[in-house]
Structure formats: structure tokens, C-alpha cells
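Field log, afternoon session.

UNIT: design team B
ACTIVITY: writing a sequence onto a fixed backbone
BACKBONE:
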């Protein structure tokens, strides 16, 4: 049973180490409801990052949000609300310094109305937004909130990069009122520095400690038997 417990313990430790940390998060709950323009919507809520949008100002606002992809018990609150077919081919951009992190990924909750943007291209930049590269095919949000994830762990140029940037180019809206919502947008990564000295020991160290303890117990048991 000791060996089974050790195996379970080690698997939990390794699983924890593989999880990414949040580098920057926007939950969009800072805005005043129905006040438009993006000034408050774009404030980063955790970490450091900068967000902007080239939509017409009166087409940038907020609406009821979601807890999907939220963190630290954030309430549903508000979500970013982008609307209007006149903004087809316009974009939402956010810049994040990924120095000290690898295995970058982007995740957020999103939905659209039936006439909202249904052909949206995710892109990334490794040079402070000077140039942009498509990542995968355009995605089509559902008409109810769903979670959208972009795993960028295969793009090493985004790691340890103070000029990392991300954006969504929206397209496919067919009316002025057609809109998409985005909520709880997170940029995550795995810390790339060496682990601190106080972290859980490596599996080989744990095994050696276990063997040492077993040996000590056997010696103690033999000593007690000799005394009897």
C-alpha cells in the first residue's frame, strides 16, 4: 500500500507541475453597465497586459457575462460586447509580456447572436504587433456561451517574449445589432525558470528516501527482536 500511495502522490505532483499559471486575465467586470467605448472594459484585472479594439466606439460595450473560464470565484458580472456588421474585418487586440513563461495558451468564454460575427480568425504576433500570423482556421462561436481555447505551446517564439501579442479578426456579422460577447479572457503559461529549492523532491529522491526509511525500520525491528 505504501508504494501505491507513493505512485498516487507522485502523479498528483506531476499533474500540478504541468498546469499553467495565469499571466494576464480580463474578466470585464470593471465597466459600468451599458456604458460603451472600451475604456473600462479593457482594464486588465490580473497580471499585466494591454487591450484595445478598432471597432467603432459606439459598437464597443458590455452585456451580461458568464462564470465560464472564470477564476477565483469571479462573478458572472459583465462580458465584452462587440457589435455591428460595419466592423467586419476589425479586431480585438491584447499584448502580454510572457517573459519567464513557456507553453502559452489563450482561453475565454464567448457567444454570438444569430447575426453576429461567425467567421473569426485568431492571430498572434511575436514582434509587438508589427506583423501577425493566423493560428488555425477561423472559429464560429455558438449562440450560447462556450469555452474557446488556443493551445500555442508549439510556438516557441511566444515564450519568454516581451513583445507577444494576440488578436481576433471578426467577420461574418450580417446586421448592425449582430454581436459577439467575450468573457474571462486568460493568457496562461508554464513558469520556465528553475523550481525553488523548497519544491517537492524529484521522484528519484522520494524513492531513495522511501528505501532509506524501509531500511531503518528493518534494522529497528531486528534490534528489538534481538532484545527479546
Amino acid at each position: 500500500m505504501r508504494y501505491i500511495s507513493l505512485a498516487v502522490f507522485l502523479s498528483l505532483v506531476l499533474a500540478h507541475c504541468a498546469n499553467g499559471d495565469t499571466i494576464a486575465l480580463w474578466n470585464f467586470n470593471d465597466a459600468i453597465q451599458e456604458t460603451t467605448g472600451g475604456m473600462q472594459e479593457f482594464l486588465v484585472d490580473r497580471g499585466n497586459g494591454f487591450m484595445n479594439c478598432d471597432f467603432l466606439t459606439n459598437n464597443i460595450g458590455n452585456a451580461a457575462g458568464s462564470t465560464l473560464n472564470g477564476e477565483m470565484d469571479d462573478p458572472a458580472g459583465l462580458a465584452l460586447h462587440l457589435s455591428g456588421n460595419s466592423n467586419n474585418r476589425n479586431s480585438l487586440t491584447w499584448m502580454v509580456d510572457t517573459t519567464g513563461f513557456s507553453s502559452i495558451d489563450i482561453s475565454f468564454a464567448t457567444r454570438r447572436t444569430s447575426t453576429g460575427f461567425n467567421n473569426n480568425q485568431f492571430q498572434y504576433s511575436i514582434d509587438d504587433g508589427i506583423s501577425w500570423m493566423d493560428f488555425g482556421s477561423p472559429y464560429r462561436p455558438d449562440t450560447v456561451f462556450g469555452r474557446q481555447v488556443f493551445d500555442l505551446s508549439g510556438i516557441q517564439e511566444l515564450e519568454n517574449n516581451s513583445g507577444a501579442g494576440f488578436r481576433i479578426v471578426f467577420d461574418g456579422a450580417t446586421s448592425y445589432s449582430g454581436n459577439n460577447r467575450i468573457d474571462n479572457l486568460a493568457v496562461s503559461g508554464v513558469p520556465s525558470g528553475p523550481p525553488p529549492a523548497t519544491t517537492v523532491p524529484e521522484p528519484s529522491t522520494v524513492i531513495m528516501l522511501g528505501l532509506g526509511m524501509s531500511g531503518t525500520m528493518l534494522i529497528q525491528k531486528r534490534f528489538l527482536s534481538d532484545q527479546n
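LOG NOTE: The helical segments are 2-18, 203-227.
NEXT ACTIVITY: expression trials, pending approval
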